[in-house]
Amino acid sequence: MSQQAQKLQQQLIDNLHTSVLLFDDELTLVYANPAAEVLFAMSLRHMLGKSVFELVQCEKGDSRNQLREVIESGNSYTEREITIRTPHHPLTVDCTVMTISEFGQDTLMMELQQVDRQLRISHEEQLISQQQASQELLRGLAHEIKNPLGGLRGAAQLLEMELGDAELKEYTGVIISEADRLRNLVDRMLGPSKLPNFAELNIHEVLERVRQLVRAESGEQLTIVRDYDPSIPLLKGDSDQLIQALLNIVRNGARALNNRGEMTLRTRVLRQFTLGNQRHRLVAKIEISDNGPGIPHAIRETLFLPMITASDDGMGLGLSIAQSLIARLHGLIECDSKPGKTTFTIYLPMDNESD
């Protein structure tokens, strides 16, 4: 290959958005392009000479044998949406591995395409779509239930006025009270009907209010750790609705811990962050974590739908209402759970304006 062709090839690789890493036959890094430096948050100088297993730890499969097989056989392989652990953080990537033979020497080439962001955006769009579909379904259901309930209640009241026997009036009283209970249940499923009143607020004052309420309910055996970022500026939202949403989540966590354990309230600010398909200059990130048993896998995908609960004494409306309230503030709630750590993450745009 001519020197000019080699220079052109080097420029092409250096300008790729895909991360490219080259390893010798001892699986030691000999080259990484600028995209790989960004992906691993390390300079090429610090990466050179490291083993592939120091840089990339695959969370599933026997990667050592797979890489050796690629070198020996010359075959390539591709795995999609795999989780790897880098020296600094876990990543979800599409990974392609192949060999390049030049001058009698085998070089292992690894291409990594990060897909975390695409997967997160897809997941957020799914959550937003799920929330919108759920609200439409509930509105239709509420209309179909509340109309006959109103007629049933009115008929029971008229009948009660015609009855002279006090014992018989007890039965009409039951009909009226049960109709009222069903109507209240439907109203709770729909969530608050009041539109948010946008005003500037301090997110830490809201969290402190929630913390005080839960501590008063749960007692001293529940530890609530605060990890606040004091640099977060004021954001626009509805203080009352935000307190209700966060309170529902924190109460759920306290219930999962049986009021004995540790919860953490954490705040951070994200810059140039995308929620769904909209990019925001500043977004407040609020994490509510607990060290409880985790959420059953069977309900994780439907966790924010009404009547979905892992608790024996709950009605499954708290998280649905919380998601609805946060959605009204143009935000989103996500959940990540495993035994020993469950984290609800609330994203709130700081450039909110009332509709």
Q: What does this 3D model show about the protein?
A:
This protein has 355 residues and is an alpha+beta fold. The protein has three domains: 3-114, 2-Layer Sandwich (Beta-Lactamase); 119-190; 199-349, Heat Shock Protein 90. It has ten helices and 13 strands. It has a six-stranded antiparallel sheet. It has a five-stranded mixed sheet with strand order 8-10-11-13-12. It is elongated.
Helix count equals: 10
CATH superfamily of the largest domain: Histidine kinase-like ATPase, C-terminal domain
How many strands, what sense, and barrel or not for the largest sheet? 6 strands, antiparallel
Give the strand tally.
Answer: 13
N→C terminal distance = 62 Å
CATH class of the largest domain: Alpha Beta
Mean pLDDT: 79
CATH fold-level label of the largest domain: Heat Shock Protein 90
Number of domains: 3
What's the overall geometry?
elongated
Structural class: alpha+beta
User: Which stretches of 5+ consecutive residues score pLDDT under 50?
Assistant: none
- Kindly provide the radius of gyration, computed on alpha-carbon positions and rounded to a whole number of angstroms: 28 Å
> What is the second-level CATH architecture of the largest domain?
2-Layer Sandwich
Strands of the largest sheet, in order across it?
2-1-6-5-4-3
Q: How helical, in percent, are the residues?
A: 40-55%
Helix-strand pattern: HEEHHHEHEEEHHEHEEHEEHEE
Please report which band the strand proportion falls in: under 5%, 5-15%, 15-25%, 25-35%, 35-45% or over 45%: 25-35%
